[in-house]
């Protein structure tokens, strides 16, 4: 029989062995976290690079589209077409005028004092004053509201060129070549009374072609050669 105090010894081996394992586990966790962080950063970097590449491609496409030629200097032939104006014969009273833009043409539809329909260009051939801004219809004559130039509504023939105001009107008229007023053929449909006008639907294209040809000729011939 053993008497007296019994001494117990606790082996420190468990604590000694556990500490390295704990440190190893934490190191592994830190390494895994670092790898995850690096992976996420790599994905973000790749995504940003893709976005930048796509943006650069779009910008390049836009720059190319801006420099693409959208004009022509070729001869544009007329394309005469009867087009409806959206008006009926009964919509206009005698001497009344209505401005319209039909097929790229600025026109002015009206009636003479006798009730006859007519259609002329809306811009006065003097300096381009809109005839719709106060022109008078006297008989079968239309009078420009700015300088008083008058034209026949039947054939557009010039009657008087810039008579008013005194001195100023004739002086401004002297600076510009005398021209007739443009006339458009007009008719009413058999059924419904719709007003139709015969216009050149290529008029705008022809004007633009002449414009670009003039610009190119100012720098050299439009065929690429020089004078």
Note the total helix count: 3
Question: What is the ordering of alpha helices and beta strands?
Answer: HEEEEEEEEHEEH
Number of E strands: 10
How far the N terminus sits from the C terminus, by CA atoms, comes to 134 Å
Taken as a percent bin, the fraction of beta residues is 15-25%
Mean pLDDT: 78
Radius of gyration: 43 Å
The proportion of residues forming helix, as a percent range, comes to 25-40%
Overall 3D shape: elongated
Side by side, the strands of the main sheet go: 5-6-7-8
Structural class: alpha+beta
Low-pLDDT residue spans: 5-11
Main sheet record: 4 strands, antiparallel
Describe the overall structure.
There is one protein chain. By secondary structure, the protein is an alpha+beta fold. It contains three helices and ten strands; from the N terminus they run H-E-E-E-E-E-E-E-E-H-E-E-H. The strands form three sheets. The protein has a four-stranded antiparallel sheet, with no helix packed on it. A hairpin with a 5-residue loop joins strand 7 (150-152) and strand 8 (158-160).
């Amino acid at each position: 029989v053993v008497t007296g105090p019994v001494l117990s010894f606790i082996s420190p081996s468990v604590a000694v062995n556990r500490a390295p394992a704990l440190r190893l586990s934490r190191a592994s966790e830190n390494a895994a976290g670092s790898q995850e962080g690096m992976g996420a950063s790599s994905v973000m970097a790749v995504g940003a690079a893709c976005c930048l590449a796509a943006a650069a491609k779009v910008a390049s496409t836009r720059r190319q589209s801006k420099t693409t030629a959208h004009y022509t200097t070729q001869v544009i032939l007329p394309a005469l077409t009867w087009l409806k104006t959206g008006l009926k014969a009964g919509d206009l009273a005698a001497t009344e005028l209505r401005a319209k833009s039909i097929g790229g043409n600025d026109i002015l539809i009206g009636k003479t004092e006798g009730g006859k329909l007519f259609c002329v260009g809306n811009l006065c051939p003097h300096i381009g004053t809109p005839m719709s801004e106060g022109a008078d219809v006297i008989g079968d004559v239309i009078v420009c509201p700015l300088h008083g130039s008058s034209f026949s509504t039947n054939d557009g023939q010039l009657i008087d060129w810039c008579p008013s105001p005194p001195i100023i009107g004739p002086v401004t008229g002297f600076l510009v070549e005398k021209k007739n007023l443009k006339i458009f053929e007009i008719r009413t449909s058999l059924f419904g009374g719709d007003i139709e006008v015969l216009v050149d639907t290529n008029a705008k294209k022809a004007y633009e072609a002449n414009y670009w040809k003039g610009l190119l000729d100012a720098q050299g011939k439009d065929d690429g050669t020089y004078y």
